[in-house]
Write a structure and sequence with these properties.
The complex is a heterodimer of chains A (422) and B (164).
Chain A lengths: L8 H10 L8 E5 L2 E5 L3 H10 L10 E4 L9 H16 L14 H7 L8 E4 L13 E4 L2 H10 L1 E5 L3 E7 L8 H12 L8 E5 L8 H9 L8 E3 L4 H10 L17 E6 L6 E3 L7 E3 L9 E5 H4 L2 H11 L9 E5 L3 H9 L2 H7 L3 E2 L20 E4 L15 E5 L1 H10 L11
Parallel strand pairs in A: 2-3, 2-4, 4-5, 7-8, 7-10, 8-9, 13-14, 13-16, 14-15, 16-17
Antiparallel strand pairs in A: 1-6, 11-12, 11-17
Chain B lengths: L2 E8 L6 H4 L25 H4 L4 E5 L11 H9 L1 E6 L4 H10 L2 E4 L9 E5 L4 E4 L4 E4 L5 H9 L2 H12 L1
Parallel strand pairs in B: 1-2, 2-3, 3-4
Antiparallel strand pairs in B: 1-5, 5-6, 6-7
The chains are: A alpha/beta (422), B alpha/beta (164).
The complex binds iron/sulfur cluster (SF4).
């Protein structure tokens, strides 16, 4: 790699955190700001950490969020959640988010202000890349690597090359960040950004809200991406001033930084998309799809935010979920649940005949609360539609935006809402 | 480092970690028997027939999806010692190295049941059944050192002992 002095956002953050002049391809050891683990990945991390026999831990860097199988779905998951509680107590870790006061781990990281510009954050969950939306370098790792950060506060990284994605124009009605990212993954392939960062930019950012950026960064991993990063503009700053804990500093890319590839998307040309089973990269315009559904799921770290619930409520208000469909609505965090309650959204969903629950990962990973039977089909705002992801190996998941999921719940088949793209 | 020799299990592109080990098996009471659930949704017959030291040969993007370290652990527990793939998803690649499963990035010709031998030091894979040979890139020194030490936790253990 050419060492020009000019850096991408990823090169800049990994240089800052390793105190080295680092470029794509270099392997660095870098100081990690936060390490997050959830109830699925925590027990293994605890076991690995405790096997080291240390008496010190980087407690202020650790964030513990039970979310996958909580509220405890069975005895095994109850034991697992209990392990988190015990570990938090034993090691005096304050950043533990109990059921009812937390939610899906990535949304908790945003709501509680751990995610902020310029930070280096890892999580033992692949969708840790979500916080790139807020100009952080964040990426998923395994449980052992999380344990390594518990012990050392730092970790090794190979500085990734970046692909620049420039956004232009503005999205039309009922088109969203979900449609952009499904289109992008379909274009570059589910390994199109493997080992790489997708770095977003362009004038279109001014018309691309933080909630949509969070959806896009969340799904960078579905293209194999190590990170999906946005620059921090006035929208970002407005957002993080409200939420971020502690100090942070935004990081801009240098104008002459070197990119592996550059792509451009016109937001104005986007249409509602759906990713067909069994890969997030099987995207098609909704208008080309004719599929009957049994379940519609609105929630997850991808699209369980207040903005998503608002769009959905606007579409379903005064209407009913089709008799043949179960619609499941799961706000991504306790904060979002409270906002949705205050705004009267939860009542709108309940009146329409949807099932509404408190925050958890729920059906997203086929854990509980909406597992699919053989042959069943679900249109979902989540991020993965792998074989058996939501239940039986012969069930199917179709990924789409909150607007499409809601319109489909009403119609009983996958459709875009009336007026979409107008 | 070591030489490996084993029977091939053949897979295609984009084998995700939900296929390797489904999410509903990821509870701590299963941590020592992850291998018994290996590929249970997509190849339920495999677990009973996989032998110790067997090798998976796959296409692109092996191990995509969730960051669950349970995936390489399930493979190891079932007896798989190496995965030879055209490419790997990055989190899986790191996890494999950390738990002691060998990930080799290389395109090889192999059918199910062929016998493969891998010479890690020489960067050579021989398909003994077909009589073909492939070479692969050596690991970067940092990664090689990690593997030699037995993974990240083993390395940290060693470092902490040195300093204390
Ligand atoms: S909501 Fe789904 S994708 Fe997000 S952390 Fe939970 S299981 Fe993973």
């Amino acid at each position: 790699m050419k060492k020009t002095g000019a850096k991408t956002i990823s090169e800049r953050i990994l240089s800052n955190k390793s105190k080295l002049d680092a470029y794509a391809g270099d392997i660095v050891e870098a100081e990690v700001d936060y390490v997050m683990v959830n109830d699925v990945t925590a027990p293994l991390a605890f076991k690995e950490f405790e096997a080291l026999g240390l008496s010190e831990i980087h407690r202020d860097k650790i964030v513990l969020v039970p979310d996958h199988f909580v509220p405890n779905k069975d005895i095994a998951s109850a034991e697992q959640a209990a392990e988190m509680r015990r570990f938090a107590k034993r090691w005096k870790i304050d950043n533990y988010y109990e059921v009812g006061r937390g939610g899906v781990c990535h949304q908790v990281m945003v709501d509680e202000g751990f995610a902020a510009p310029g930070r280096l954050i890892i999580g033992a969950d692949s969708h840790t890349c979500t916080y790139g939306a807020l100009n952080a370098f964040s990426t998923g790792v395994g449980s052992s690597e999380a344990a390594a950060v518990f012990a050392e506060g730092k970790l090794w990284f190979k500085v990734p090359e970046s692909i620049k994605v420039r956004l232009e124009g503005a999205m039309r009605k009922y088109v969203s960040g979900k449609d952009l990212i499904i289109k992008l993954i379909t274009d570059i392939g589910v390994d199109g950004a493997n080992y790489r960062t997708l770095e977003f930019g362009g004038k279109g950012l001014a018309n691309f809200p933080v909630s949509d950026r969070l959806t896009v960064s969340n799904m960078a991993i579905e293209a194999g991406g190590k990170a999906g990063i946005f620059p921090a503009d006035s929208e970002t700053l407005h957002f993080v001033r409200k939420f971020a804990k502690g100090k942070w500093e935004k990081v801009d890319p240098d104008p002459d930084a070197s990119y592996l590839d550059e792509r451009e998307y016109s937001l104005s040309d986007l249409v509602p998309m759906v990713a067909m089973p069994h890969l997030p990269g099987n995207g098609r315009p909704v208008s080309e799809v004719d599929v009957e559904i049994d379940q519609a799921f609105l929630g997850s770290c991808t699209n369980g935010r207040i903005e998503d619930l608002r769009i959905s409520a606007e579409i379903i208000k005064g209407k009913k979920v089709a008799p043949s469909v179960r619609m499941i609505v799961v706000p991504a965090s306790s904060l979002i649940y409270r906002l949705a309650d205050e705004e009267g959204l939860l009542g709108i969903f309940a009146k329409a005949g949807a099932f509404v629950s408190g925050p958890t990962c729920a059906a997203c990973l086929g854990g509980h609360m909406g597992v699919l039977a053989k042959g069943e089909r679900c249109v979902s705002t989540t991020n993965r539609n792998f074989i058996g992801r939501m239940g039986h190996k012969d069930s199917e998941v179709y990924l789409a935006s909150p607007a499409v999921v809601t319109a489909s719940a009403i119609e009983g088949r996958i459709v875009a809402p009336k007026g979409a793209g107008a | 480092m070591k030489k490996l020799r084993g029977k091939v299990w053949k897979f295609g592109d984009h084998v995700d970690t939900d296929q390797i080990i489904p999410a509903e098996r990821l509870t701590s009471d299963n941590n020592d028997k992850l291998g018994t659930f290996l590929f249970e949704k997509v190849r339920p017959d495999m677990v009973d027939r996989v032998g110790n030291g067997d090798i998976i040969v796959a296409g692109r993007n092996f191990g995509c999806g969730s960051s669950r370290e349970h995936a390489p652990r399930a493979l190891l527990q079932a007896g798989i010692v190496a995965v030879v793939a055209e490419s790997f998803a990055r989190i899986f690649y790191r996890n494999a190295i950390n738990v002691g499963l060998l990930p080799v990035e290389c395109k090889v010709q192999a059918d199910e049941g062929d016998v493969l031998s891998i010479d890690v030091d020489k960067g050579r894979i021989v398909n003994e059944t077909k009589g073909t040979e492939n070479e692969f890139q050596p690991f970067p020194p940092f990664v090689q050192e990690l593997m030699d030490k037995g993974g990240l936790m083993a390395k940290i253990k060693e470092e902490k002992r040195c300093t204390k």
